[in-house]
Specification:
317 residues, alpha+beta, six-stranded mixed sheet, three-stranded antiparallel sheet, binds zinc ion, IS1016-like_transposase, ISXO2-like transposase domain-containing protein, Tnp_ISXO2-like
Length: 317
């Protein structure tokens, strides 16, 4: 199933039976919902039934006789939708507009409201945070798989920003950590325009036990992890100092996409503690710009919230 525009999404969400060509099938196709659930009591396939009070589908297996049981489990268990109060069909509108960058609160509220119910600002704020978190976790894994940026003839700029308190829904807690941004700001001919980015969240730098400036060794390790050696020139914006780690000389001659982006986000009112999220949202959309952003987002969300792989902290219902 492929939803190419908002009209097609509306047609899909209007299906009377979502389990027959509707939103349940869309979510199953991309991997956000399980396609089958085996009843843990008898080994038969559980059936999907609508739980009207929760506006959600449940896996259910009810047997009498020698092994009587009544197995019930939410289709949303361990999924992106596990904690939502909003019905999934309305969340899909939110995801649609988020994916395409139509992400002002007013747009999202308008587009996810019904004739009877106006989506609350609180719900939108919560959902935007969850969706940005999907971008964050997905990119983190992607960077790890893709390997290093930089290389011969490529200038890489490094930028550090402290990020504040933030509790993750599914992922690491990065309270008081630093975000290290790495961006290719000039590439050799034939490698295309627009530098690749890397982001790393790191722990607060340890105290200077070795007598070296605080955080220097850790920063070097992060650069080595993400940036191919052989760069002609590499600059670091370490708080207010600009340092070249090759020579540890200061430099002020930095042109980049990274700091203008941070500046733009701050100008839009994004506070520092949320900066990493907004940067990731931007990077995610940039990465997938040649694709159908809605379908790409659903697939990324299914990788991060894979219902077949519950998070370690998940409780058994
Ligand atoms: Zn059963």
């Amino acid at each position: 199933m492929d939803i190419r525009n908002h009209f097609q999404l509306c047609v899909l969400l209007a299906k009377e039976d979502p389990t027959n060509g509707g939103w349940v099938v869309l979510c199953q196709d991309v991997g956000l919902f399980l396609r089958d659930r085996i009843c843990p009591h008898c080994g038969d396939n559980a059936k999907l039934v609508l739980e009207k009070s929760k506006n959600m589908y449940m896996w259910r297996c009810r047997k009498r006789g020698a092994n009587p049981h009544d197995f019930k489990e939410s289709l949303a268990k361990n999924t992106l939708f596990a904690k939502t109060k909003l019905p999934v069909d309305r969340v899909l509108h939110i995801i649609y507009f988020f994916a395409f960058g139509e992400n002002t609160y007013d747009t999202i509220i308008r587009e996810s409201s019904t004739n009877d119910v106006v989506t609350s600002r609180e719900s939108v704020v919560q959902w935007m945070a969850w969706l940005r978190e999907v971008c964050f976790i997905w990119l983190d894994r992607h960077f790890e798989n893709e390997g290093r940026i930089g290389g011969p003839g490529v200038v890489v700029e490094i930028d550090e920003t402290k990020i504040g308190k933030r509790k993750y829904n599914r992922g690491r807690n990065v309270d008081g950590h630093w975000i290290v941004g790495m961006v290719e700001i000039d590439v050799v001919e034939g490698r295309g325009k627009g530098g690749r980015f890397r982001l790393e969240i790191c722990k607060p730098p340890a105290l200077a036990l070795d007598g070296k400036p605080r955080g220097r060794l850790e920063l070097e390790a992060i650069i080595r992890k993400h940036v191919e050696p052989g760069y002609n020139h590499l600059t670091v914006n370490h708080q207010t100092n600009f340092i070249d780690p090759n020579t540890f000389a200061n430099t002020q001659t930095i042109e980049s996409q990274w700091r203008p982006l941070k500046y733009k986000l701050r100008k839009e009112g994004v506070r520092d503690e949320y900066l990493a999220y907004h940067l990731c949202e931007y990077l995610w959309r940039r990465h997938f710009k040649e694709t159908n952003l809605f379908m790409s987002f659903l697939r990324c969300a299914a990788e991060v919230y894979n219902p077949a792989v519950p998070p370690p902290e998940a409780e058994d219902a």
